[in-house]
């Protein structure tokens, strides 16, 4: 099964279905006020790149890179359909996001997940992310766990 991961517009029925499933999953674990999910309109904003992971054309994973005004970046909406878990799609999505962030000159990629998402935490830690104090809207939320990873910087050309 060929897997293709690439940036795509989020307003597509199959990607919107992944977002719906992601919402359902998050709301099954955490109170609504602790679910920091970007909706389709927010994912269409400038500075946001949405990645789709497709296997034989079927959208089975999604992730978004949100670039901030000061050069910071955050991973958002990482989700893999339950039919495709355990096949490395999340790792591939994470790699694609990191590659684009690195090319954009991002020095550190940050993310927020929840303490009950053990598989996600294990994935991030295996990928080199380290726990950091909760930042921004996540500060003080006991249902948030934040991570960051420094990204390689391009060597300056002379």
Automatic annotation (TrEMBL):
Gene3D superfamilies per the UniProt record, alphabetical: 3.40.630.30
PROSITE patterns attached to this UniProt entry: GNAT (PS51186)
Keywords assigned by UniProt, alphabetized: Acyltransferase, Transferase
Record-annotated N-acetyltransferase domain positions: 3-152
Keyword Transport: no
Domain of life: Bacteria
InterPro entries: Acyl_CoA_acyltransferase (IPR016181), Bact_Acetyltransf (IPR050832), GNAT_dom (IPR000182)
Record Pfam families: Acetyltransf_1
Signal peptide (UniProt feature, chain positions): none
Keyword Nucleotide-binding appears in the UniProt entry: no
Name of this chain's protein: GNAT family N-acetyltransferase
């Amino acid at each position: 099964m060929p897997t293709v991961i690439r940036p795509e517009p989020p307003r597509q029925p199959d990607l919107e279905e992944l977002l719906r499933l992601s919402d359902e999953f998050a709301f099954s674990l955490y109170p609504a006020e602790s679910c920091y999910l970007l909706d389709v309109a927010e994912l269409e904003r400038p500075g946001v790149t949405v990645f789709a992971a497709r296997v034989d054309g079927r959208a089975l994973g999604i992730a978004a890179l949100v670039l901030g005004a000061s050069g910071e970046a955050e991973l958002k909406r990482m989700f893999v359909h339950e039919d495709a878990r355990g096949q490395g799609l999340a790792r591939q999505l994470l790699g694609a996001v990191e590659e684009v962030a690195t090319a954009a000159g991002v020095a550190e990629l940050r993310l927020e997940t929840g303490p009950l998402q053990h598989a996600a935490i294990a994935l991030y830690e295996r990928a080199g992310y380290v726990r950091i104090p909760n930042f921004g809207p996540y500060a003080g939320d006991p249902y948030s766990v934040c991570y960051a990873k420094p990204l390689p910087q391009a060597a300056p050309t002379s």
